[in-house]
Structure formats: structure tokens, C-alpha cells
Specification:
Number of domains: 1
Strand order of the largest sheet: 1-3-2
CATH architecture: Orthogonal Bundle
Oligomer: single chain
CATH superfamily: Winged helix-like DNA-binding domain superfamily/Winged helix DNA-binding domain
Distance between the termini: 18 Å
CATH topology: Arc Repressor Mutant, subunit A
Number of helices: 5
Largest sheet: 3 strands, antiparallel
Shape: elongated
Order of helices and strands: HHEHHEEH
Length: 96
Amino acid sequence: MKLDVQKVEFAAKKIRTITHPARVQIIKLLEENEKLNVTQIYEKLNILQAETSHHLALLREYGILKKVRQGKMSIYSLNTETLENIIKISEDLSKR
């Protein structure tokens, strides 16, 4: 089997994205609250707005979060399908 190196690199980046401590906190917060805007997230986590926006952008880039515009506000929620796939792959790998 020939590996697609780009796909391997993308998968590795996706996994690294969700392992950052601040991003883990964001994921947990969204799991508990379902939908939040950036202000609610940075206030609950007590981190800077710019830092929060950076983490949210990375999580969106790799399909971990969904973003919906409501007027001037962006509302974030988990892309549970992507997270479930990552968890399944991780579990499958740990069985080997």
C-alpha cells in the first residue's frame, strides 16, 4: 500500500490541534454548553480574546468546530462527527 504523505500530515495536524490544553478546554466547554460565542468562551476560560480567536480558527480549520453567523456574532459548536472519527481511529490504533 502506498501512503499519501499529505493525508498522513493532515491527520497528524488534526490530532495535534485537539491536544493543546486551551483547545481541550474549549472542546470541553462546548460539550457542556453546546453553542457559545467567542466572548462567552474567553470569559469562561479566562483567556485573552485574541488567543481564543486563534484557537477557534485552528479548531475550525481542521473541522473540529462549526461556526454559524447570527447577525454580527459567530456561534461555535462541536463537530461531533469529526471528533467521533478521531476517537474511533485512536481506539483502533490502541488495539494494535
